[in-house]
Amino acid sequence: MGFSIALIVFSLLLMLLVLMHKGKGGGLSDMFGGGMASSVGGSSVAERNLDRITVVIGLLWFACIVVLGLLMKSNS
């Protein structure tokens, strides 16, 4: 039960983080100051941190999927 709740939470966080990334026409990260710094040159610290957080949440999401699969397999 706990891993199912964690999976839902990580899924919602992952959707939010992906929507915050800057795309071709800008993203929600522009609201937090990412637009000005990235237009000057390179990616800003905020964008790099957003990337790191997204990767970590994605790995946690994947781990929850694997654990839930193993639990379902062992319960069968």
TrEMBL record:
What are the entry keywords? Cell membrane, Membrane, Protein transport, Translocation, Transmembrane, Transmembrane helix, Transport
User: Topology versus the membrane, per the UniProt entry?
Assistant: Multi-pass membrane protein
Question: Might you report a single GO cellular component term?
Answer: plasma membrane
Q: What does this protein do?
A: Involved in protein export. Participates in an early event of protein translocation.
Q: Mind giving the lineage of the organism this protein is from?
A: Bacteria, Bacillati, Actinomycetota, Actinomycetes, Kitasatosporales
Provide the protein's localization: Cell membrane
Q: Which Pfam families match?
A: SecG (PF03840)
Q: Name one GO biological process term.
A: protein secretion
Keyword Membrane in record: yes
Q: Which family does it belong to?
A: Belongs to the SecG family.
Q: Chief location of this protein?
A: membrane
**Protein name in the entry:** Protein-export membrane protein SecG
Gene Ontology terms for molecular function: protein-transporting ATPase activity
The transmembrane residues are 53-72
